[in-house]
Amino acid sequence: MHATVADHHFYPPPGGNHAQNEGHWAVKRTDVKPHFAAANSISASPSNGSADGVPHLRTPEIVDLRAIDPVDCPCGIARRAFADSDDFPGTLHFTQISQDARAHFHREHTEIYVILKCDPDAAIELDGVRHPVQPLKSILIPPGVTHRAIGEMEVLIVCTPEFDSRDEHFPGESRN
Q: Compositional bias (Basic and acidic residues) at which positions (predicted)?
């Protein structure tokens, strides 16, 4: 049994008891195209970048986050990667957060913060509620949630869709 909505198929969770699995359904996209050409259009040898012999047209990207020019952001200093990548619908930020992070929210962006290192009393404030953080704690922040980091920390932030500074909004300030 499955239901179809647009280009997605929804399958019941393993075990079949929806009540025990809180009604969560697995999603299988049907509109995803493979990332490789037909076997007759490109050599399937490992020399084209594929260790398993499966041909592909895309090239992996490797970025040294320390080598990216830093930019000011409401939290401190950010180094943003993969903004020009056709293979990733977002950006990755290595952010050094200062003590004076400014509360802000996004109307379109979803962010995932991964704490790499932080002060012992560091926290993240989500809609006015303070939550302690520690290294390797992750926080998913959906659009509309006002947030700010408290204390010094270094974080990786995964932002989707691709970061756009026009989607940084500050409580109490109007922006067109």
A: 1-10
Asked whether residue 87 is assigned to any structural domain, the reply reads yes
Inside any domain, residue 92: yes
Asked whether the beta carbons of 39 and 50 are under 8 A apart, the reply is: no
- What confidence tens digit (pLDDT) does each residue in 89-112 have? 999 999 999 877 899 999 999 999
Pairing of strands 91-97, 76-81: antiparallel
Domain contains 19: no
pLDDT in tens, 14-66: 444 434 334 333 333 334 333 323 333 233 344 455 666 666 678 899 999 99
Domain presence at residue 89: yes
Nearby residues of 47 by Cβ (< 8 Å), 6 or more positions away? none
Q: The tokens of 136 are what?
A: 């390797």
Q: What is the pLDDT of residue 55?
A: 65
CA distances to 2, 41, 113, 142, 161 from 8, in Å: 10, 29, 27, 21, 19
Query: For the domain that residue 149 is a member of, what is the CATH number?
Result: 2.60.120.10
> pTM (2 decimals)?
0.67
